[in-house]
Input
Amino acid sequence: MRNRQATRLLSELSRAGRRGAEFPASDVPEWPLEDLLPASALADASPHLPELAEPDVVRHFVNLSTLNMSVDTHFYPLGSCTMKYNPKRHERLAGLPGIVDVHPHQTAGNIQGLLELLAEKQQMLAEISGLPAVSLQPAAGAHGELTALYVAAAYFRDKGESRKKVIFPASAHGTNPASAAMAGFECVELKGTEGGFVDLEELRRHVDNQTAVFMVTNPNTLGLFEKDIAAIAEIVHAAGGLVYIDGANMNAIMGITRPGDFGGDMMHYNVHKTFTGPHGAGGPGSGPICVRDFLADFLPGPVVRQRPGDDRRFELATPAKSIGRVRSFFGNVGILIRGYCYLRTLGAAGVRSAAEQAILNANYLKSLLADVLPSAHGEYCLHEFVASAEGLAKERGINAMDIAKRLLDYGFHPPTVYFPLVVPHAMMFEPTETESKATLDAFSDAIHKIVAEDAELLHTAPHNLPVSRPEEVNATRKPVLTWACCKD
Amino acid sequence: MDPASLKFTKTHEWVAVEGDVATIGISDFAVHLLSDLVYADLPPIGKKITQGEPFGEVESVKAVSDLYAPVSGEVIGRNDALPDNLDLLTTSPFGGGWMVKVRLSNAGELSSLLSQTAYKAHCDAEKH
Amino acid sequence: MSYLFTTPDEQVQMLQRIGVTSLKVLLDQIPEDLQLDRPLNMPPALTELELERHMRGLAARNAGASSRICFMGGGAYNHYIPSVVDELASRGEFYTAYTPYQAEASQGTLQAFFEFQSLISELSGLDVANASLYDGGSGVAEAVLMAGRCTGRTGRVVIAGSTNPEYIQTLKSYFANKSTEVIVVPTPQGTVNLEKLEAAVNDQTACVLVQQPNFFGCLEEVAAIGEIAHRHSALLVQSFDPLSVGLLKRPGDLGADIAVAEGQSLGIPLQFGGPFLGILACRQQFVRKMPGRLIGQTVDRNGERCFFLNLQAREQHIRREGATSNICTNQGLMALRATIYLSLLGPAGLKEVAELSCRKAHYAADRLTQIEGCERMFAGPFFKEFVLKYAHGADTAVRKAAAAGIDIGPTLSRLPELSWLPEDERDQCLIVAVTESRTREEIDQLVAALA
Output
C-alpha cells in the first residue's frame, strides 16, 4: 500500500502557484517597503521553497510516517535508549493553554502555576538522585554532561585549582569524552576489568591531583551495577576530584538506589528516556543536572526557587557564582512537563516498580536468548544486557548487523549493535518495563528462527521493508545532503 | 615504488626518501584495515609537521583515523588527485596513493623507522 | 500505575525462567548498603483524571499568549501555527521513534530531515544545513566553535554587542575553560560600528559573529562586516531570523560562511522557552567540520532512492573526544515541525508573514512614538521588533500594558550582557515585537494602554 507518488521529495511535488497557508490582508497603512527597509538589505526574491496545497502536505507527511518504526507501532529494544511507552496524556497536558503558549520572557508574577510545577519537578529530581541542587536548563543528556563539566571547571577555578583531566571507562558513551574535550579538558580512558567493571587498580594509577572529574555510567553500558562504586568515589574524592554519574541508565535504579547515596557529586537525567519524554525521532530531549550543595552556586541560571519569606510564591534566580547559561531561555520545558506528568502518574511506588519491572524484563529476555546470543558479562543484568554474536559470526558467518536487519522483516526493531565497543559483535537489548511477556516471547522466537536461517538470506536482509541496505561508501565520498545537489 | 625500499612506522605510514625529500603514504595493510575509505584530509603546502604528531586524517564510513608524521619537516608537495580518487589507495598504496612530500628537517629521525621486514612482523603481531 | 503489562502469574513464570526465586535476588547486584531503605518522598500517584484537573489548575495560573495579546520578542515570537503542523507532528510514528540509525526502519524520519536540510539551505542561502541543534543560543556557540575548526584559529572570536545577550552569555560559558579570547564589541548606537569592529579583529581571529536583524530588531551592515572578517581570513558567522528572509537578503547572499538561527518562529510553540530549534548551515567546504547529524541521499541494494545518516564519523558515538560536537539527542521533532510549516507556507506565504510582521511593527512604532515620553531607543531601520524607550520606566510600561491584557517585553534591565548601556536608559527600555498574528486594533489598544 506504499504511496510512491506522495512520498516523492517536496521539491518534486511542488507546482508553481499552489499554497498551503494564507494570511489575512494587511490592515495597517501600506507604506512602501522601500521606505521601511534599506534597499541593500532587501532580497530580490523570496527563497525557492516548494509550493504545495494543504492536502499535498498532509498526504506527504502521513505517508512518510508510515515508513517509520516507532514505540507506538513496534517493540523497540534499542539498548541504552530506553524506548518505553510514551503516554498519550502527556501530549494533551503539555499542550494546554497556559503551558504551551507561555512566552519565555513572561514575568514571574504571571507564571506562578508553571514555576510551582518546575519547582516541584526540581524537588522530585533531587529526591530521586539524592543530589539536592538542580538545574533544568540543559537540552539533552550530552548537554547536561557538558554543563556539569563547566560547573566542575568553575568550581575548581573558584578554589584556585586548574585541574585538567577527565577520566572515564572505555565502555563509556561517546558523549562523555566528546563533552570533556568540548569543555576544555584532557580525556583519559580507562581499561575495564574482564568482568566489565571499572578496574580499581587502573583508576588508582590515573587519578591524581590533576583529576577534575571521573565520569561513570551506573549501571554501566553493559547493564551491570558498578558494585565498587563506593570505593571508586572514595579514590576520586581522596584526590580532590568529582564523581560524575551519567544518568543514561537511571531507568534501572530509580527508587532503588541513588547517585547521591553511592558517591556521585553530579549527574544528568535523560528526561526523554527515563521519564518518557518521548524521543521525537532524535529529539528534543531534556537533560537536567543535579549536584551536591557545594556545587549549587555554580549552576547555570535561572533556577526556580521559593521567594524568600513567602513559601507560596516562586521566582527565578541565578546562583551566586553561576557559570552563566548554556542555552537561551529556561530549558526544554515541554519535555520537562511530560516528565513531570509521568512522575505524578507513577508516584513513589510506581517509580520503583517501573525500574523493577525493567530489570525483570531484561533478565527474562537475557535468559530466553542465552542459548544463541550469550552474554559474557554477569549472570544477571539490570535493565539491559549486552549479548555477543561472535560465536555465530565464527561458526556461520552471521554478524550482528545481519540479525539486526533480519529482525526488521519480522516486525521488530533491532537492538543496538556494535556498542559498547568493549564487546565484540555486541548486541545490546533494553526491553524496558512497558513490554509484556508475550512480546518478549515472540521476539525471542523471531531471533531463534533468524539464527537458523540461511546466512545469505541474512546478509541481504531486510527483504520486506521499503528499502534495504543503503549504499554508504560512495554516498559518503560525495555526500548529497540537499535536494539542490540531486538536480546536478 | 618498491615496498622493500621503504621505511615504515608502527602506525602504518610509509616513507620513501630521495635526497632531503620524503614522500609519505599509508601501507596496503592500513588501507585494508580501514576499508572503504571515503575522505582524506591532507595538510597544505608550507605546513610544518612533526614526527609522531598527527598531520592529517583519513575517514572511512564508520571511523576516522589520524595520520601520524613518520618524519619532521615542511610539506612541499601534496597529492591533490587523492581526495577525489581514494581508490588509488587500494590500487596503488605505494605509488599513486602517496599523500605528501616533505623536506626533511632532521634526517636522523629516519633511523627510528622500521624496515619492511620489521614492519611485516609488526603487522603479523597486530593481527593476533 | 506504571504502564506495566505483566500479571503476577507471568512474573512468577519469568522469575522461574531466569532461575531466581524472587526479584530481590536480581536486585542483590546492587550492594545492600547502597539501596534506598525507604520509599521516595514524592507526591501521591494520580489517575489521568486527577492529573488533568491538577494540570489545568496550574495552567490557569499562567498568562499564555493565546488568552492575551502578545507583543513580546527578544528571541521568541507569537507567530501563527497552522493546525496541520500540530496534527502531523503528533503522529506517533514520528514522535515515538528514535534517532534514525536503522535506515530501513526510519525512512520517514530520514526523508523529512533531508527535506528540512534542503529547506534550511534554501532559507540561509548556504550549501548545507544539519538536521538541528538544541536552540539559537547553543547554536551560536557551536557555530563559533566550528569556525575555530574551519580556520585552525583558536586565539580570538569577535562578537557584535547587538547579538542576543543570552546567546553571548551562552557563548561565554562555552569558552570559559578555553584560552580563546571572546571580544564583545559594544554597539551603543544599536548597530555595529565598522571601525570599532575592525579594530577588534586580528590575525588569530576565527570569526566575527553578527545577528541580523539584531537583538534590538535593527538591521546591520552584514556585507561590510563580512568583508572585514574575510580581509583578516576570519569567517563570518551570522545569526538570522529564518522568517525574515521572506523580505531580507539571506546570510549566504551577504557573505556569511556559517549561518545559525533560532527556528522557533517556524511553527514551534512558545512553551516557556523550549523545546525550540537550533539551525546551522554552512558552505560546502566546511561540511566535515559541522556539528550534529546530517542526512544524505543514496540508493539501496535494489537501486531504490533512500536516505541515511551520512558523515557519522564526525559524531561522538564514533569519534569520541575528537568529535565535532558532543551533541547526540537533537531537536528532531521540532525540525519536523519546521519542515511542515515551511512546506505549507511556500515562497508566497513566507513573504507574506515577513511583510505583515514588518509592516505591522512599523505601524506600531509609528503610533507608539507619537505618545509623549515614548521613543525608539535606536533610530536605524528595523524589521519586526524594536526597542521602545519609555520615560516613565520600562517596568511601568509592562504594568500598564498588562492591565489591558497585553504583554510586551522583555525589559532590557532583565537581561545580562547589556551593561554597556547606561543604567538609567536601560531601565527605560523594553522590546516590542509584532508578528502577523497582531491586528491594527490590538496595536491601537497597546498605544492606548501606554498613552
